[in-house]
Write a structure and sequence with these properties.
The complex is a heterodimer of chains A (about 375) and B (about 325). Chain A has about 375 residues and is of the alpha+beta class. Chain A is built from 15 helices and ten strands. By secondary structure, chain B is mainly α. In chain B, about 75% of the residues lie in helices and about 0% in strands. The chains are: A alpha+beta (about 375), B mainly alpha (about 325). Chain A: Keywords: Membrane, Signal, Transmembrane, Transmembrane helix.
């Protein structure tokens, strides 16, 4: 056990070295950026208080998701705090549950990264404490609670991840997916009532088929039609099923599909397409726990991931950071990074739902999905 | 077996102790050992009760209370929601799927166990069947689902082979992602589980009973009707209840296979309890309460049946 831990520690340490190099290279690409971000974010007293606490507890941050595998070590390296990352694959519901049940314990989460509807639940239950990061003003209005209980950190849009070894003609639009050649090839990453990406995919299909943020029904009808044609298969898509070709067209967040493209490079060519119409996005929210055992470290973490440096790390993992437009306007995004992203054109049409619309869409999907989508 | 043993050692411990002429050491030792054994026994029983309370009673109580607790005190809202069409369908699907796979799995498993472990069957067959069952009964969850997808899915190996031979499996209406597909997948672990748990009962069928029946003029059919099956019936029923529970609680396999397109109770619980889209812990508890009720009914039915069937044994 202890030997195991030691090994894990060593591996993490080795990995950290690599990440640090990466972060250093990034800094080199952007001369002056680090200091500018610091100028906005430096609060010596906060850094000192956080250093005094010496550690930070995060939860539900998978290393292969939105580049958290690089963000966490970068934070550790910069401020020397030990970061404990608990249950990386936990869901938003489980994050809130962790705040409730671990209250008062030293291993309780300091910060959470939850979907918007869960951010509202947490706020209503008084699980978060408001905090405004130095870069607060450049976070888009629609993505933050005015009092600072929670605010969006990054967003993704629904995309088609296509295994081109199996699929000869890459689909461009929702309409394309209905072609007979895609029989048995189209999958979501789970149940739209449970997996956020699958829910987003249904909504994106609605936007592309005459629906709206207020009306998700056309999206359900679209998948019912795909199922009738035999094109939609209900297998819960995973990276391995996309790679092996069991789910050759996987409808998922762009940052996940793009990360798979990079991961499978040299083995399988994955093409990532944002549908021309029906561009649906959703974001995750950061919030500081009211019962954080390391409250200063929690705030320092927020300062870090909302700094240009932190936000660029998200983009390096193909997740669009909340302050993307601000950073584009200020020209702080390196060309090489932009070149790896899909064409920026469709992103201009991205639509985000609000809490009320989300609640309504959930009810509709809950009532209709199993009844209408028959496989 | 064990109680006379214990009485014996207890007597041995007490009797010599009252006779002062005997050496003191051996009785002392045995009394000490006896005390230790009793203390150990009590400790183990206590540990068992702690276990039952911590992992069965407390969670059940939590589920029971949580299902009726709303934002503003007690409420029947969540339990009433179980009666809506969506959750009623989930319960109906779950019960039907569990019942079908428990029955088919039970009958097939019993037949295989009889053919493989009866005294007349060759030794290698018995070894092969029991070791395969041990592995297959524990092969479930996401790996099993994907194994079936790559065998029987729309692009599966077997599907494509059959297609090449001119038989389109999916044209017959079969789909791996439908109720029947789920049932087939469940049977992959239900049948071997049945083989494992029923084998001891099958092995206990004595050859002499069959010989005696035959000597008294019974046909093989009569032997099974009046001797074999009645003896096997209580354990077969018990095993089938276990199979029912096993299928009823299966979660990862149906989720990976159908993404919850066929409503099942465990999947609905997962949706409201630990998803990224909805959150309603109380509804999850109400659903869990419903599961406990269904299992209690199944156990009750089993107890009733068993009492009727085993009446003659008393």
């Amino acid at each position: 056990m202890s030997q195991n831990e030691q090994q894990r520690g060593r591996r993490a340490f080795l990995k950290m070295g690599v990440y640090t190099l990466g972060a250093g290279a990034l800094g080199g690409l952007l001369p002056g950026l680090g200091s500018r971000a610091m100028a906005a974010g430096t609060d010596e007293a906060l850094i000192k208080a956080a250093r005094h606490e010496g550690r930070l507890n995060v939860i539900a941050l998978p290393p292969n998701w939105a580049n958290y595998g690089e963000i966490i070590p970068a934070f550790h390296h910069k401020y020397g705090l030990r970061v404990t990352s608990a249950s990386p694959n936990a869901s938003s519901a489980e994050e809130l549950q962790a705040i409730r049940t671990l209250k008062g314990q030293s291993r309780a989460p300091d910060v959470v990264d939850v979907g918007p509807s869960f951010a509202l639940i947490g706020q209503k239950e008084g699980l978060f404490v408001p905090y405004k990061v130095p870069t607060w003003d450049s976070i888009p209005e629609g993505m933050k609670d005015p009092e600072g209980h929670w605010y969006g950190d990054y967003f993704g849009v629904i995309s088609f991840g296509v295994n081109t070894r199996v699929v000869k003609h890459v689909p461009h639009s929702w309409d394309d997916l209905k072609r007979p050649e895609y029989k048995g090839q189209i999958a979501l990453n789970g149940n739209p009532l449970r997996a956020g990406a699958a829910f987003g995919a249904v909504w994106a299909a609605a936007l592309g088929n005459g629906g709206s943020l207020d009306d998700i029904t056309p999206g359900i009808e679209f998948f019912a039609d795909l199922a009738k044609r035999g094109n939609y298969i209900p297998i819960a898509a995973r990276p391995a099923t996309l790679e092996s070709g069991q789910t050759p067209i996987t409808v998922d967040w762009d940052y996940l599909n793009l990360a798979y493209r990079k991961k499978f490079k040299g083995r399988v060519a994955i093409d990532v397409r944002i549908p021309e119409t029906g561009v649906f996005g959703n974001y995750y929210c950061q919030a500081v726990s009211r019962f954080a055992p390391n409250p200063s470290a929690a705030r320092l973490w927020q300062d870090f991931i909302y700094s240009d440096e932190g936000q660029l790390l998200y983009l390096k993992g193909y997740a669009h950071p909340a302050r993307f437009n601000d950073m584009v306007a200020r020209g702080v995004i390196p060309e090489s990074l932009m070149a790896e992203l899909p064409p920026s054109e469709p992103y201009k049409n991205v639509r985000f739902p609000n809490a009320e619309q989300t609640k309504k869409a959930q009810d509709t999907v809950g009532k209709l999905w199993q009844k209408m989508v028959r496989t | 077996m064990s109680s006379p043993d214990r009485a014996e050692t207890a007597a041995a411990g007490v009797v010599p102790a009252v006779s002062p002429t005997d050496g003191l050491a051996p009785p002392m030792g045995s009394r000490l050992g006896d005390g230790l054994a009793r203390a150990l026994q009590r400790l183990l029983v206590a540990a068992f009760f702690v276990y039952i309370v911590a992992f069965l009673l407390l969670p059940s109580a939590e589920v029971l209370v949580g299902a009726f607790r709303g934002e503003h005190g007690l409420t029947l809202r969540y339990v009433r929601e179980l009666l809506t069409q969506r959750y009623a369908t989930a319960f109906a699907n779950s019960v039907e799927l569990s019942l079908v796979t428990a029955l088919i799995g039970g009958v097939c498993g019993l037949a295989i166990a009889y053919l493989a472990v009866s005294p007349r069957s060759p030794h290698w067959l018995r070894t092969a069947v029991t070791s395969f069952s041990g592995v297959a009964a524990n092969f479930a969850g996401v790996p099993l689902a994907f194994a079936f997808v790559s065998t029987l899915g729309t692009m599966g190996l077997l599907t494509l082979w059959l297609q090449r031979m001119g038989f389109d499996l999916y044209a017959t209406g079969f789909s791996l992602f439908s109720f029947s597909g789920l049932a087939v997948t469940y049977l992959y672990f239900q049948i071997p589980l049945m083989v494992i748990i029923i084998s001891p009962a099958v092995q206990a069928l004595r050859r002499e009973w069959r010989e005696a029946a035959r000597n008294l003029g019974a046909t093989p059919w009569q032997y099974w009707r009046y001797v074999g099956l009645p003896i096997l019936m209580p354990s077969t029923l018990a095993a089938m209840v276990l199979l029912f529970g096993n299928a009823f609680a299966a979660y990862a396999t149906p989720y990976a296979l159908t993404s919850g397109n066929i409503a099942l109770v465990p999947i609905e619980i997962g949706n409201v309890l630990s998803g990224n889209v909805m959150s309603s812990p109380q509804l999850g508890k109400a659903l869990a309460l419903g599961m406990i009720a269904v299992m209690a009914l199944a156990m009750g039915a089993y107890a009733l049946l068993q009492r009727r069937i085993s009446r003659w044994q008393r």
